[in-house]
Design a protein that fits this description.
The protein has 210 residues and is mainly β. Helix content is 5%, strand content 41%. The chain has two domains: 146 residues, Translation factors (Elongation Factor Tu (Ef-tu), domain 3), CATH 2.40.30; 44 residues, no CATH class.
């Protein structure tokens, strides 16, 4: 048993050959190096988990540096907790791509690309208004958003124009095609959310489909 996941960075999309010689589209993800920064125990925190850090930087503020002092004064930008699944780790341990095996299913979580402010057609795939009969300014309008008398207001959650993207997104049951231990890179089949260089969480698949 080992820790269930790691932090990493999306490198971009590539094409790789799998073990059957098929050319497949994949996403390269650099997982780690991650370092164990804290051990959560039921006696102290009330639950069991391992806190890991990723992405070394030159400088941290004093509270962040003080928190990481026990891990050997590492300067890590991102921290996250994962279930250790009964495995024993020590503060300062280094973790990398070797935790994942080719053929394994993983879930990848990241913030999707931000698209800024978008209208209803782009954001919710509205069809727009009629393209004829003199309606020269209704092509991409949202239409009615509620009755005037009843309910006399706009319901919460009504699909309208607004900020699009930049939300936490998880893609489940992606296959690890191969890995490069020297560079700490996983090649995951298909696409994953987020921009190139974005922070991602890679963990063992939890809801494996039949």
């Amino acid at each position: 048993m080992s820790i269930e996941g790691l932090l990493g960075r999306k490198l971009g999309t590539v094409q790789v050959f799998d073990d059957r010689g098929r050319l497949r589209g994949a996403t390269a993800v650099q997982v780690g190096p991650c370092y164990v920064t804290q051990i959560r125990t039921p006696e102290r925190e009330g639950y069991s988990a391992v806190q890991i850090g990723f992405d070394e930087v030159k400088k941290l503020n004093r509270p962040e540096a003080g928190h990481l002092r026990a891990a050997g004064n590492l300067k890590l930008r991102h921290l996250a907790e994962f279930d250790a699944r009964g495995a024993a780790y020590n503060v300062g341990d280094r973790l990398g791509a070797e935790l994942f095996e080719p053929g394994q299913l993983v879930d990848v979580t990241a913030d999707s690309k931000g698209r800024g402010f978008q209208g209803g057609v782009r954001r919710h795939n509205f069809r727009g208004g009629p393209k004829t009969h003199g309606q020269s300014d209704r092509h991409r309008a949202p239409g009615s958003i509620g009755s005037g008398t009843t309910p006399g207001r706009v319901y919460k959650g009504t699909r309208m124009a607004g900020h699009m993207g930049a939300v936490r997104t998880t893609v489940r049951n992606l296959v690890v095609i191969s890995r490069n231990d020297e560079e700490g890179v996983l090649f995951v089949a298909g696409s994953i959310p987020g921009p190139q260089g974005g922070l991602v969480r890679v963990r063992q698949a939890k809801k494996v489909s039949k």
